[in-house]
């Protein structure tokens, strides 16, 4: 497993590695030092890195790298330093060891593929690349890169990586056409979505004590990364439109590059009683916060690339049995509507989100419970964890067989 992010950071890759070891596979993870999302190396790791050398039986190799810190320049150095560190540490620390496959987890950056390709070549193992974030499209969508020349260079890097992988997996069907633009052999592209994690299927959970009780409130909860892609300005505008409605409140759990902006904007607009910023908690605590939610919010900026995306939180939200409020376009909106699991407005439509929140608040508890049940059924049919884990094992075996048939 090659992933810039790994435990104790909260990413789906942790669950994947745990399942592989549970199924009897020997797993080695080539990753970096935990520093996401705050940008500083976790104090517990800094004080005692040895206690983070294994995870549910998987061996962890930590590459030297710079933490994210703050600012675009430091983020770019973080990405680059992982490539260099993993490309040096991986071959050296794993010298003489054989591997059947190299699997890449890529929520961003695409550069994680470079040390993976190197390891694949050195170990003569197939490389399976799971695309969770489209590059260069995402860079343009969030405004990180605006130069056509630089975006073109990133596109060539993407082509270099995809064309040296045995299989390329896209997290939504909408990803496949974009991947094909940079992949000389479209026959190597496969659809593989994220799964709904079992921790979110819990029903009888004590509500988190960090959330103050508010009898009669309709609580809309957002959980996850607080970044550019999530369009928090539109969410804040929707909350502002309902500022004088004492019943509706917004619970925001998470952290990210827009956290400071969000905190200041909530203060500036006088929304402290309507928008509660609760901070970041481990995934195991999420069900206790969900216990306060009457609806779960998922949002993405209005951009063609984001319309191709199914945000990873959608699967978890559906599994929870709580209805969804969506402010997004494309694939994610299609899932919510197909599941009949909530209400959806267009990406960037703050007024539409406010109206949807009021409409759901006006529903009876039975109507909302029916939406929640619909979501759970859809998650079982489309994003079942066991079925997708079985499918991934089949894809890895397929990659091994392709490698065997391909002349050296």
Describe the structure.
The protein is of the alpha/beta class. It is built from 16 helices and 13 strands. The chain folds into two domains: 12-195 and 384-405, Rossmann fold (3-Layer(aba) Sandwich), CATH 3.40.50.2000; 198-382, Rossmann fold (3-Layer(aba) Sandwich), CATH 3.40.50. Helices cover 43% and strands 14% of the residues. Strands 10-9-8-11-12-13 form a six-stranded parallel β-sheet, sandwiched between helices. It has a four-stranded parallel β-sheet with strand order 4-5-6-7, with helices on both faces. Strand 4, helix 4 and strand 5 form a beta-alpha-beta unit. The model has no long low-confidence stretch (mean pLDDT 94).
Largest sheet: 6 strands, parallel
| SSE ordering | HEHEEHEHEHHEHEEHEHEHEHHEHEHHH
Q: Rough shape?
A: globular
Radius of gyration: 21 Å
Indicate the CATH topology of the largest domain.
Answer: Rossmann fold
Strand portion: 5-15%
Helix content: 40-55%
In DSSP terms (H or I, runs of 4 or more residues), the helix count works out at 16
Contiguous runs where pLDDT drops below 50 for at least 5 residues: none
Q: From the 3D coordinates, which CATH architecture of the largest domain would you assign? A: 3-Layer(aba) Sandwich
Extended strand count: 13
Distance between the termini: 23 Å
Report the structural category. alpha/beta
CATH superfamily of the largest domain: Glycogen Phosphorylase B
CATH class call of the largest domain? Alpha Beta
The count of domains is 2
Question: If you average the pLDDT, what whole number results?
Answer: 94
């Amino acid at each position: 497993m090659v992933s810039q992010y790994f435990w104790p950071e909260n990413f789906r890759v942790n669950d994947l590695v745990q399942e592989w070891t549970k199924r009897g596979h020997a797993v080695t993870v080539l990753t970096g030092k935990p520093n996401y999302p705050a940008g500083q190396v976790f104090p517990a790791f800094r004080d005692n890195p040895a206690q983070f050398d294994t995870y549910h039986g998987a061996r962890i190799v930590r590459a030297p790298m710079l933490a994210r810190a703050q600012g675009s320049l430091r983020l770019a150095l973080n990405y680059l330093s992982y490539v260099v560190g993993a490309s040096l540490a991986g071959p050296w620390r794993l010298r003489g060891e054989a591997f059947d496959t190299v699997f890449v987890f890529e929520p961003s950056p695409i550069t994680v593929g470079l040390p993976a390709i190197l390891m694949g070549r050195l170990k003569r193992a197939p490389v399976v690349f799971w695309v969770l974030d489209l590059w260069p499209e995402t860079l343009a969508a969030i405004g990180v890169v605006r130069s056509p020349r630089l975006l073109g260079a990133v596109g060539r890097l993407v082509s270099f990586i995809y064309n040296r992988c045995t299989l390329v997996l896209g997290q939504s069907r909408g990803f496949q056409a974009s991947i094909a633009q940079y992949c000389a052999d479209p026959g190597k592209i496969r659809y593989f979505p994220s799964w709904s994690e079992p921790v979110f299927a819990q029903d009888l959970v004590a509500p988190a004590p960090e959330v103050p009780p508010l009898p009669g409130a309709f609580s809309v909860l957002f959980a996850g990364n607080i970044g550019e892609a999530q369009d928090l300005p539109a969410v804040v505008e929707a909350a502002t439109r309902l500022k004088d409605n004492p019943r509706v409140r917004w619970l925001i759990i998470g952290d990210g590059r827009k956290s400071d902006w969000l905190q200041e904007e909530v203060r500036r607009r006088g929304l402290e009683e309507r928008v509660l910023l609760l901070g970041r908690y481990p995934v195991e605590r999420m069900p206790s916060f969900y216990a306060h939610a009457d609806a779960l919010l998922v949002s993405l900026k209005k951009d063609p690339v984001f319309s191709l995306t199914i945000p990873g939180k959608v699967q978890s939200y559906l599994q929870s049995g709580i209805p969804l409020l969506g402010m997004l376009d494309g694939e994610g909106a299609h899932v919510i509507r197909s599941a009949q699991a909530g209400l959806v407005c267009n990406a960037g439509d703050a007024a539409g989100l406010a109206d949807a929140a009021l409409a759901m608040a006006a529903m009876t508890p039975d109507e909302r419970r029916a939406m929640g049940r619909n979501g759970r059924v859809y998650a079982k049919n489309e994003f079942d964890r066991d079925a997708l884990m079985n499918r991934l094992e089949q894809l890895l075996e397929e990659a091994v067989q392709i490698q065997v048939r391909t002349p050296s």
